[in-house]
Write a structure and sequence with these properties.
The complex is a heterodimer of chains A (174) and B (100). Chain A is mostly helical and 174 residues long. Chain A is built from eight helices and no strands. Among the domains of chain A are: 77 residues, Up-down Bundle (Four Helix Bundle (Hemerythrin (Met), subunit A)), CATH 1.20.120.1200; 42 residues. By secondary structure, chain B is mainly alpha-helical. Chain B has one domain: Helix Hairpins, CATH 1.10.287.3510. Chain B is 75% helix and 0% strand. The N and C termini of chain B lie far apart (55 Å). Classes of the chains: A mainly alpha (174), B mainly alpha (100).
Chain lengths: 174, 100
């Protein structure tokens, strides 16, 4: 059963990713990206990461994607005639060969490693949100605060960049 | 039981797709969307390794990546609005003001 769900989510997310890259209309690309994000969140559910599932749906599909669609519709983009790179066919063959090689290497690899201290039973006992919270506010507190400062800087930077420049122009003339 | 390499393979395919999108597409917004695809591929990898190696660190890094992606989207889209206001198109080939 899990295998069926994994196959569905994996194939659908890859198909949505290919559509995001290859569709012509930018709004269609945004909707394909939405499908990709939702299917990737399904993979998170299979991996016992329901907190990340919620964050993915709320932050990615709910906030970031709406931001993209807002900008797309605000700017009323026309679809360009030449929307691919002029020599994109030369990129495709090396990319296909390289990705096949990487896939062959990945499927053969055993991926062993040192196990951590949070087995699946411990995550399932109190829930994934509890486990993430305990870890984040004990060992990763500094990183958490750094991300907070980074987001504040990003928000202020976006406001400064996107502000209407009319007052500045008037100062130049006067 | 799904092997870990299946997740890594899915994530590799998604990453290559996003990389091709960044290289091939000429619309700035689509290029940013392809960057989001690449970040999602990295997230799949991190969560899968966090599950199979029984550690919480992968999920935390994935959370931080989502936060960074939100900041990147905000700044990138603000830059697009500024460029578009200056009557330059969103084709990345025509944005060469800073080219030497």
């Amino acid at each position: 059963m899990v295998l069926v769900f994994f196959a569905y989510f994996a194939l659908a997310s890859i198909a949505a990713g290919v559509m995001t890259v290859s569709l012509k209309n930018p709004v269609h690309c945004g909707l394909a990206l939405l499908a990709l994000l939702l299917h990737v969140s399904g993979l998170f559910i299979i991996l016992n990461a329901e907190f990340l599932w919620a964050v993915q749906v709320i932050v990615y599909a709910g906030a970031i994607l709406v931001l993209y669609l807002f900008v797309l519709m605000l700017m009323n983009l026309k679809t360009d005639d030449r929307y691919f790179h002029s020599s994109y066919l030369y990129f495709l063959a090396p990319a296909a060969i390289g990705s096949l090689y990487v896939l062959a290497l990945l499927i053969r690899s055993p991926f062993g490693g040192a196990k951590g201290d949070v087995p699946a039973e411990a995550v399932l006992k109190d829930g994934d949100t509890y486990a993430v919270g305990i870890k984040m506010f004990s060992e990763y507190l500094l990183q958490f605060e750094i991300v907070g400062v980074f987001l504040l800087g990003a928000v202020i930077g976006a406001i400064v960049l996107a502000k209407t420049p009319k007052p500045a122009n008037r100062e130049h003339r006067g | 039981m799904i092997p870990l390499s299946a997740y890594v393979a899915v994530s590799a395919v998604l990453f290559i797709t996003g990389l091709l999108g960044v290289v091939i597409r000429r619309n700035f917004i689509i290029v940013l969307m392809s960057v989001e695809i690449m970040l999602n591929a990295a997230n799949i990898n991190l969560v899968a390794f966090s599950y199979y190696l029984e550690s919480m660190a992968g999920q935390l890094v994935a959370l931080f990546i989502i936060a960074i992606a939100a900041g990147e989207a905000a700044i990138g889209l603000a830059i697009i609005i500024v460029v578009f206001r200056g009557k330059i198109s969103t084709n990345v080939d025509e944005m060469n003001l800073l080219k030497w």
